[in-house]
Amino acid sequence: MKIAVVGMGIIGGSYCKAIKKYTNHYVVGINRSPLPLQKAFDCGAIDKIGTVEDLSDVDLIILGIYPAAAVEFVRANGDKIKKGAIVTDTSGIKSEICQSLVDLSHKHGFTFVGVHPMAGKEKNGFDVSEADLYKNASCIIVPCGADEKAVKTVADFNLSLGFGGIKITDPEEHDRMIAFTSQLPHVLACAYVLSPNCVNHKGFSAGSYRDVSRVANINAELWSELFLENKNPLITELDILIKNINSLTAAIKKGDKKEIMSLLEKGHKIKEGLGE
Questions:
Q1: CA–CA dist 82, 158 (Å, integer)
Q2: Which of 82, 112, 145, 207 has its CA 20 to 30 A from that of 169?
Q3: Residue 203: Cβ-neighbour burial (10 angstroms; 0-12, 13-18, 19+)
Q4: What SS3 class is residue 79?
């Protein structure tokens, strides 16, 4: 295929590098600023430094940009996309954007298939992208009404890049589960390191500190957008977390060892039951 990757950050850059490492597809890179594109071309991650005019000649478009930017990009350039092409996003939320992109697909004659690669790092930018970022990761596909052939094309393509498996779901389940598995831990990590004790942790910390605080090294602009665009599912998860913390806090304040043990053992059994 001829593939256009829009956005040369860690996600788009890693897609480019993985495509060139593991497949024979031709890759056109598109980005607002020229420097990442030049870096991508110089290291062989893309075959061509492209523009939006190249959208008329590609089979697959991967939108490696923020959710709102992805919708705006397609809205501005949908008339340039080749009829019958497949467009995928890489966004961490789906309900907020899928309907807009489906509507645009009907208007302009392309097929939209939602994609969320479950991989990343705390840092962003082309410089930290890598060909094996997606190795053994889960790839979530949200068909959004696309036909079976298009969904299979997208699934097979992502598996060819090293993804470990495909999870197919709908926008609502995606956003509900991502609120729990991804967004809530980022809120928790940021809230944790806001403690005044954090600046003095060295010499007192080990694995527990690293595990809880790791994702606090966050891209504030991106995650603010994700939190707000997935507000209701995230608030539901936050309310559950706060309730559970309050239960433990109350038991500790009362000195109720039996209740503390009961709550801790409940958590232990859930985690143990998952085999993790």
A1: 21
A2: 82
A3: exposed
A4: helix
Instruction: Classify residue 211 as exposed, middle or buried by CB count within 10 Å of its CB (0-12, 13-18, 19+).
Output: exposed
At 124 the pLDDT is: 86
145 vs 133: CA distance, rounded Å = 28
What are the tens digits of pLDDT across the range 174-210?
999 999 999 999 999 999 999 999 999 999 999 999 9
Task: Give the β-pairing of 165-168 and 60-63.
Answer: unpaired
Distance CA 59, CA 82 (A): 7
Q: Distance between CA atoms of 201 and 193, rounded to whole angstroms? A: 10
What secondary structure, in 3-state letters, does 110-148 show?
CEEEEEEECCCCCCCCHHHCCCCCCCCCEEEEECCCCCH
Task: Tell me the average pLDDT of the chain.
Answer: 96
Buried-exposed string 120-142: b where 16+ CB fall within 10 A, e elsewhere? bbeebebeebebebbeebebbbb
The two structure tokens encoding residue 29: 């890179």
Q: Rounded to whole angstroms, how far apart are CA atoms 57 and 80?
A: 9
Q: Is the dihedral of CA 28, 33, 36, 41 positive or negative?
A: positive
**Number of other residues whose CB lies within 10 A of the CB of residue 73:** 22
Residue 153 contacts by C-beta under 8 Å, 6 or more apart in sequence?
Answer: 60, 86
Is the sign of the CA dihedral 55, 56, 61, 63 positive or negative? positive
The answer on pLDDT for 121 being more than 90 is: no
How many residues are recorded in the chain?
Answer: 276
